[in-house]
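chain below, 114 aa
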Amino acid sequence: MRDENLLVAALQDTGAIVEHREANAIQVRWRGVGGALHRDAQGIWQAVFTGDVDQQKAVGIVQALDQAYGRRVQQTVVERLKARAPQAGMSVMSEKLEDDSTVTLILDVDEVTA
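prediction:
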């Protein structure tokens, strides 16, 4: 999870309230659960949960966060592709969100005139 802004958005997508944020550290709260996230020197995020949480619930929170972050990254990539398509001589013909949350984009190559 390299992009801290996407991480914060993903946390909010899981229902977390961000209570405090500074470089490489985020304090969050869900109903009955507190979380302290910290990025180490290798860039890996670590989380410590407190409150009404056991190992199973902590794993569930991390999995939900991972999925939410993946959706945020996907959304960012799709927006970049759509923004850059005209510069590459393409246009977006259609965009479809699938049941499994994947996005299908169909791009049309614009006619090249010599």
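The chain has one domain: 4-87. Helices lie at 4-13, 55-84.
thats it, cya
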